[in-house]
């Protein structure tokens, strides 16, 4: 295996034997005949891919697609039926929460047991013990049996151990989903630093934002087979599109209806003119209206006709200034009756990371709206546009019906509106929140006055 490859998964197949009744398993072993009392279930079929050093690869797929089985084979806790996995470096894995821990042992005892399983000597664990406990922040519970731990405490201890193994490859399977927000952020900072140090990360998560933020590429599994491999943004968006479309009948949408043609001749205004002499750090955001929308899907019960940005007085905008109020206007037509329409939007950066968004569900929770077939509807979101670092952004819009947790997508459009940040602002982070006031002044203490 080449030195620049961390993991090479080569034609992996995994079949499980299933028996209708438990004693059939013993009977099969006893009779040793050619008659099979079992059925073979193909969990993985011809899985092949390479992960290069310093790369972060996400594995996505619906429940039962084979993600956890694949990770167990990569980590060596499960044997493949055929094929091979080649790893170049020490692997530390955080698979099923609490796996590798003895519930009767204390936290200290499990640190030693888990550390030795991961390849550390007793002396190495001794030298890192204080740091492991400190990182986990459960010092007051470390001498108690882990069966008394909450799921969050389990995750803290397990992650702390793998963080101190000094492995070249980390494999994490959904474990971070149970941690409290503070510790999850701590883990994310560790993973970001791990990546910067050239570590290789294999991550399974249902959190599409985590996948697009952390991962360079993504492997999409479906029914034990590879559906797609590619960059994280493209594959994740395709996966989400497939996920929603399989919950309902897929309907390919057309481009803009003639209903929106009336907007073509409206004049745009440029509000930058009012502020052009007042600041050289102004965040100028150009709005680009694509001739054709990005990916579209839905069951066809509604059709989005137009997506625009306007001032409070209704004038169309071609430019927005970061920190100024904007009205995002979404027009749609009800192709069928919709009992509880939900209109929403998401602003994403060029990597597909969701920065912010909202929908109408909570606003009309007590008094749901109803649409009749053929009616035209309009939804407006009024908000202050965040300050955006230089680069391209896009707005995804959708119309659904149902509830926040259980809904059907009627019409979904990616890249309905493109925003190009033309100037660099002093704000840092993914987005900048406009400040109402910033002050810096010398504080004279009472002691000094006395």
UniProtKB/TrEMBL annotation:
Question: Domain of life of the organism in this record?
Answer: Bacteria
Q: What gene is this protein a product of?
A: wzt_2
InterPro entries of this UniProt entry?
Answer: AAA+_ATPase, ABC_transporter-like_ATP-bd, ABC_transporter-like_CS, ABC_transpr_TagH-like, Bact_Polysacc_Export_ATP-bd, P-loop_NTPase, Wzt_C
The organism's taxonomy opens as: Bacteria, Pseudomonadati, Pseudomonadota, Gammaproteobacteria, Pseudomonadales
Keyword set for this entry?
Answer: ATP-binding, Nucleotide-binding, Transport
Query: Matching SUPFAM superfamilies, A to Z?
Result: P-loop containing nucleoside triphosphate hydrolases (SSF52540)
* Domain ABC transporter: start-end pairs: 24-248
Q: Which CDD domains does the protein's record reference?
A: ABC_KpsT_Wzt (cd03220), Wzt_C-like (cd10147)
This protein's name: ABC transporter ATP-binding protein
Q: Name one GO molecular function term.
A: ATP binding
Family indicated by similarity: Belongs to the ABC transporter superfamily.
């Amino acid at each position: 295996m080449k030195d620049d490859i961390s993991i090479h998964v080569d034609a992996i197949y995994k079949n499980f034997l299933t028996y209708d009744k438990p004693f059939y398993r013993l009977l099969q072993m006893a009779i040793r005949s050619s008659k099979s009392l079992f059925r073979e279930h193909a969990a993985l079929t011809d899985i092949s891919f390479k992960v290069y050093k310093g790369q972060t690869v996400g594995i996505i797929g619906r429940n039962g697609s084979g993600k956890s089985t694949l990770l167990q084979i990569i980590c060596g806790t499960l044997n493949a039926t055929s094929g091979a996995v080649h790893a170049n470096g020490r692997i530390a894995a955080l698979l099923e929460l609490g796996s590798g821990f003895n519930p009767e042992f204390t936290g200290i005892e499990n640190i030693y047991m888990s550390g030795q399983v991961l390849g550390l000597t007793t002396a190495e664990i001794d030298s890192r013990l204080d740091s492991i406990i400190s990182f986990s922040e459960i010092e007051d519970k470390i001498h108690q049996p882990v069966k008394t731990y909450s799921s969050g405490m389990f995750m803290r201890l397990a992650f702390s151990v793998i963080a101190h193994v000094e492995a070249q490859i980390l494999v994490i399977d959904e474990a971070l989903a149970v941690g409290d927000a503070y510790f999850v952020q701590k883990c994310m900072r560790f993973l970001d630093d791990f990546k910067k140090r050239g570590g290789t990360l294999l991550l399974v998560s249902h959190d599409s934002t985590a996948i697009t933020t952390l991962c360079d590429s993504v492997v999409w599994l479906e029914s034990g087979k590879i559906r797609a491999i590619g960059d994280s943004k493209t594959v994740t968006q395709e996966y989400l599109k497939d996920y929603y479309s399989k919950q309902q009948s897929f309907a390919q949408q057309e481009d803009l209806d003639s209903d929106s043609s009336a907007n073509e001749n409206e004049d745009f205004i440029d509000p930058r003119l009012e502020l052009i002499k007042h600041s050289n750090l102004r965040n100028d955001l150009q709005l680009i209206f694509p001739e054709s929308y990005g990916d579209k899907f839905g069951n066809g019960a509604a059709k989005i006709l137009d997506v625009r940005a306007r001032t409070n007085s209704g004038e169309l905008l071609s430019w927005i200034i970061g920190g100024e109020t904007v009205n995002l206007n979404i027009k749609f037509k009800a192709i069928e009756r919709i009992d509880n329409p939900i209109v929403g939007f998401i602003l994403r950066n060029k990597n597909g990371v969701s920065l912010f968004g909202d929908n109408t569900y909570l606003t009309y929770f007590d008094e749901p709206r109803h649409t009749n077939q053929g009616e035209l509807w309009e939804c407006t979101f009024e908000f202050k546009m965040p300050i955006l670092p230089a680069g391209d952004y896009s707005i995804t819009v959708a119309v659904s019906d149902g509830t926040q947790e259980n809904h059907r997508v009627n019409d979904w459009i990616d890249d309905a509106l493109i925003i190009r940040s033309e100037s660099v602002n002093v704000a840092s982070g993914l987005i900048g929140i406009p400040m109402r006031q910033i002050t810096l002044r010398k504080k004279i203490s009472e002691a000094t006055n006395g």
